[in-house]
Specification:
This protein is of the alpha+beta class. The chain has nine helices and four strands. Strand 1 (5-8), helix 1 (17-27) and strand 2 (31-33) form a beta-alpha-beta unit. The protein is globular and about 45 Å long.
């Protein structure tokens, strides 16, 4: 096993890299957040460049583990989950965990599109009107659809412990924690009105936050605060 892992993600924001950080923190394995160090950005850019990598990623996050260079959040988490006991042992369970993680990726993309509904190349201020329309639909229709689905996943899991997959914590639970935390930051009013409908997700969020390794991480400087440069952004005019 390579120690430490090297995580390549944009400095100054949680973004999709945070789902990977949470898994690394829970596993208790050393890692380096490369782009947060001096002269780290060229190393990140090289992981996306065909001139420097045989299999470059399209975008961060990217994880280096020895000779392996792994892209895509769900792919990285599948790798870490298998290595560090954060994924089921059986193939069927691993596939189910990956399926759930890909569904989390779907709602994360939709969260991003609430504040950038027209183009990622435009500033939020250039698409505020469209963002209000998109956010209204997201709050009314998409949040309940996705979180209702994940609530049912928790309800249907026969394993003890109130986890998403099996009878022990997996990377899916860590990602559901991050999803709930991000939605609460971006849409506090909407979540306050609606989250009574998802008691299992609320309980899972609280249980993950209370885990010793995660609690220590959340108190540390390694946890970048939510901000308006990331995926989960709080614009009051969108939270109505």
């Amino acid at each position: 096993m390579t120690t430490p892992y090297q995580l390549y993600y944009w400095p100054g924001l949680q973004g999709r890299g945070e789902f990977v950080r949470l898994a690394l923190e829970e596993a208790g394995v050393p890692y380096e957040d490369v782009a947060r160090r001096k002269k780290g950005m060229p190393v990140l850019q090289a992981s996306l460049d065909f001139a420097h990598s045989e299999h470059p990623s399209f975008a961060p996050p990217v994880l280096r583990a020895g000779e392996l260079l792994i892209g895509q959040t769900a792919n990285i988490l599948l790798f870490l989950g298998i290595r560090h006991g954060l994924a089921p042992r059986a193939e069927a369970g691993r596939l189910w965990a990956n399926q759930l993680q890909l569904t989390i990726a779907d709602i994360v993309n939709e969260v991003h599109d609430t504040h950038h509904p027209l183009s990622t190349n435009l500033y939020y201020e250039d698409q505020k009107k469209a963002a209000k329309v998109r956010s209204k639909d997201f709050i009314a229709e998409r949040i309940p659809k996705f979180l209702g689905y994940f609530e049912q996943v928790l309800a249907n899991n026969p394993g003890r412990g109130a986890f998403a997959v099996g009878a022990r914590l997996s990377y899916v639970d860590l990602s559901l924690f991050q999803l709930m935390a991000g939605l609460r930051y971006a849409f506090p009013n909407a979540m306050a009105r609606q989250e009574h409908a998802w008691p299992r997700l609320v309980a899972l969020h609280d249980a993950v936050a209370a885990r010793p390794t995660i609690a220590a991480y959340l108190r540390s400087k390694r946890r970048i605060p939510f901000n308006e440069d990331g995926i989960f952004r709080h614009y009051p005019e969108l939270d109505k």
